[in-house]
Amino acid sequence: MTDLSLTSITSEDVTKAKEILINVLKSSEQYKNLDLNAGTVLHDLLLRPSAEILAMAINQFNYLEETKSLQAMVDSGAAIPADAVNSILSNFGVTLYEGSKASGQVMIKVNADKEYTVAANSLFTDSSGLKFFTTDAVTANRRPGTGETTLYPASDGNFYFVVTVIAENEGTNYLLNQGTRLNMEYPMYNFVSAEAYNNFTGADPSDTIQEAIDKLPYSISTRTLDSRTSIRAILTDPDFGNFTSIQDMSVIGAGDAGQLRDKHNAFGVAMFGRVDIYPRTFITPAVTVLSKTGTRIAPNTYEFDISESDAPGFYSIFSITDAESVVAPTFNFNTLTAIGSYRFTEVRSAAGVNGSGHDISQLNELIETAYTIYQKSHVTVYDVMTGAGDTHEFKVELYAAPDIAGIQTYVDSFDVKSVKADILVRSPLMCISGLRMNVEASVSSAVTVDELKNKLADYINRKSFVSKITQAELVGVAYTSDIKTIDLSSDPTVGFKFEGEIRAADGEIKHLYGPNLIIDNIADHNKLVLPSTCIFCTDINHVFINLIKV
Amino acid sequence: MTTSVPALYSSDNAATLFSWLGSFWTSMCEDSELVRRVQIGNGILTARLYREFLDTTNCSSRYDCPVSYNDLVMPFELLKSARNTSKASSIQLGDIFTPTIGKQTEDPFIPGSYPTIGGQLSFSTITVYDLADKISDIKVITDSIIEPTVILLRDVNFFVRDNAIFFLNSDPFNKSAKSKVIYNQDGTIDYSIMLFAFNTLIDRDYIYNHVGYVVGLTMPTSKEYKLSANNLWDVYNFGPTMQKVTYYIGAILDEPVIKNETETVVAIIENTNYRQVATDTNIYTIPSNATLRSDVVVNAKLNRGAFLTNSVKFYDKVDYSRSVSGTNDAALFQLDVPALYIPTYLFRTTLSHGITVNNELTDIIHAGFDSHSNPLFTFKLLGNEEDTTAFWNDVHSYCDSQSIDMRTLLSDYLDDSYINMAGAICGRLYPLKFFIYNFFQAGLCIVAVDTSKLTSFGAAHVSELYKLQKLLPAHTLLIVINQHTVNLDNYNMDSSIEESYNKLVAKYTMDAGHYSSFASKRALTYKDSGLHLKWVPACA
């Protein structure tokens, strides 16, 4: 508890108490001329000590009352220790989210076609000493058995395989870029090199008190697949769904725009009874990496399928590159895909709907299965200039919300599902955003590019199911750092640039740009593009800050 | 638990306690009266401390959480120079004083002045001083804690509003001789007076800080706010049961709900400003202009969750012909819901504005044939013609593509025989009834509210009903129908008759406030704010 002493009380508090004592004394005719000014014995030995003790005690009660309320803590503006916050949150069965660790994949190159084993918790370090550990033991060879990993031939005559690693600690400084060279603490036999196979993701900062407050309604809610609130409560409660990945959620039910599945009747009028949930199961955009073997269908053209189980409910393809590619693709302001990716087209369709128990109209299957576990995709890749082999190995990076399949399985499970309930889980539509800002700060300012990038990326990644992000909001976030000015002009090279892309349920790409990204401007409930279905997100590498110290 | 001080050695009588001080103080201080007064003063301080302790303890419980801090004795100082310098406050409709339209002839306003739209109203007999803290009420003010010479009573001599105190009849500086001179550093002279407020209510946002913020309900502190926030919390805790939902509706609209399993009405008491329904266990107060439900009569047994008036009706089940929960009169439902606007996103096809269906008997018109030679039908819907056309085109094309014969869809409403050609009248139906029976019945619930018959609190918080939407089952839709009984107020421009304001709080939900924000049109303000109300003269 904060040390509350005489120095914590105000003179006003003391005066108030003292006035009562003085008035009681002086109200008698006998004492009305009594000298009770400071310096007198009565004042210094009787009145002031009593008043100060009372004021201090009241101050302590007020502090106690304040520390019973998270809102009062926030409003007080004082620094609040995490244990004080958690002691209140414990009454709601909640603890302050302390952030998560970055994770990603590492490509290990070896110079011989053998079987290799990497033990769990094997250590990799980058040049700055950041540590990453493998999550599981991995066995790799050319003909992998169940639970084993494929050893691929590389174009330089070596071989490679991929392992998953997780950062030692929380923090966005662990977000490695694709291609970052890593050292292996105990290199295996034939070891050549190790490098980040994809951009690392998942280093989420801890919750603020306000974010903890926002979660309280769910903590006091019933745990049932019933109301918009209780659905989130049951999914996140450790004793029930325990989907800790859920950061936010939108439930589209009766009367909500974007609920298309309750109109499957001749009149096309909502009859209710259908619910779609859009859980945001990540903060920074979650990327899944698939290895796909493409079949050649024409010169320099290959095709492959992404099945419903490859990346359940995946949102969009970020990049398709050669399997051993570790070239960090950069965000392209004008397209969802990355610079460095092969050109490709994809055709999505429904899969596994029959027998699912979900009301999905055959007449509108593409839209109604979009971003659910009941979608698959056929991909055609063009301009693959690597010979004329019948097949080609591709690395496919997808934006895919984690846990979509797990949540769907849970809400459909026999012991949880309500009678007649029809709840379909859908990945939120991601407004993949890019931002460019030119910022001036004084030479004495300690602000760094990374600080600004982290703040802005985190702000964007916390915006879920809202209609817009405005320039004013982002400027406000930037100004929480020690900066002087931001170039808000629309100058094509140095001005403020903010863009985003949303893939509608039918595959149409909707482009947002300008000082404000406003989803209402492109809303289309028949294609599931609505503030209530979309989230904003960005990769820290998509935030470009030019910091000038003057 | 045993107390540390046996009963024989404890007393709540100050004189007894003083006498028990014994020889210690008499040997230390010969002036026993002085000691007595010091102890009385310390006693008051201890009592204040105890109040703090109680509040801090009670804040642990959302049910016991105090609405405001009640300060037993609060000294406060007025500076003469601060007279009438407080920020603008508001005159609330229904106040002790309300201005009249036209020339002011009597106190408290400046006689002879005219209130103007957007202008300021000046009082002639009232002096205003700012108050510190968030003081919401003071019951008594004196110039001394013991043996006061001036005693001021709330609503007789003063009232408190917007952190300012309004002395009605005279300035305290004129009444008390205890003002003292203050010599300011700039050489000016000021006067101050120390007054003592008894039973002062200080708004410390207890309700918001301990209950409201958790459920996201924000409004000015009041006992109604406390009840509403707790009842909303109950809906979170216990789920959307009929009882919890009804209690929240009652609380947020400040409309009494029967609390016990059954209660028997023993008396109905009429007053000028309110009406009371006394049952064998509770007394419920309702606005005087509210209409009691027909079954609320003396000796009637009322069930838990029942509303007493027709101002609020909760239709959990939507049915046009049978009695439904929350009301004993199906006809009432038809009156409450004469038409229903259906927004665009409740339709499969894309519409611009949505469609309204009403309950007038409507012809079913033959609209030609589909590709399977099945007849197509339409009936009249209200709305933009492009929208109604788009709706029927979608229905017809769907039936055609799916080989659905529309006669099977409308079989209950078609005549036994009709001319099978385009333009013929083939039957009749009530469109609203048709839509409710066929589409909305299972998932729609309706709250019908007559805001003109609610208290000002209730009328101001109709929009907070929508907090229920996310707590009701996700496959159900809540619709709030906001009614208002409009009294035409004709005003003769030539008339010299002065008219006083009627109580008018809000006519429409949008006036009453917005989602999670306060109403903007609840009060008539003076000083620096423009008037919030408009008079619109109507020609008779």
Tags for this entry?
heterodimer, A: about 550 residues, alpha+beta, 6-stranded antiparallel β-barrel, 6-stranded antiparallel sheet, 29 strands, B: about 550 residues, 5-stranded antiparallel sheet, 4-stranded antiparallel sheet, about 25% strand, disordered C terminus
Largest interface: A-B, 69 and 80 residues
- List how many beta strands of chain A DSSP finds: 29
For the termini of chain A, the CA-CA separation is: 44 Å
Distance between the termini of chain B: 76 Å
Global structural class of chain A: alpha+beta
Integer average pLDDT of chain A: 89
The share of residues in extended strands of chain B comes to 15-25%
C-alpha Rg of chain A (nearest Å):
30 Å
Q: What is the typical, i.e. mean, pLDDT of chain B?
A: 81
Q: What are the segments of chain B in which pLDDT stays under 50 over at least 5 consecutive residues?
A: 323-328, 495-540
Largest sheet features of chain A = 6 strands, antiparallel, barrel
Overall, the morphology of chain A is: globular
Q: State the secondary-structure class of chain B.
A: alpha+beta
What is the strand tally of chain B?
A: 22
Oligomeric assembly: heterodimer
Question: In which range does the helix fraction of chain A lie?
Answer: 10-25%
Description:
The complex is a heterodimer of chains A (550) and B (540). Chain A is of the alpha+beta class and 550 residues long. Chain A is 20% helix and 29% strand. Chain A has 10 helices and 29 strands. In chain A, the strands form 7 sheets. Chain A has a 6-stranded antiparallel β-barrel with strand order 1-8-4-3-9-10. In chain A, strand 16 (330-331) and strand 17 (338-339) form a beta hairpin. In chain A, helix 1 crosses helix 2. Chain A starts with 10 loop residues before the first helix and ends with a strand. The termini of chain B are far apart. Chain B is built from 13 helices and 22 strands. Classes of the chains: A alpha+beta (550), B alpha+beta (540). Chains A and B meet through helix 1, helix 2, helix 3, helix 5 and helix 6 of A and helix 3, strand 1, helix 5, helix 6 and helix 9 of B.
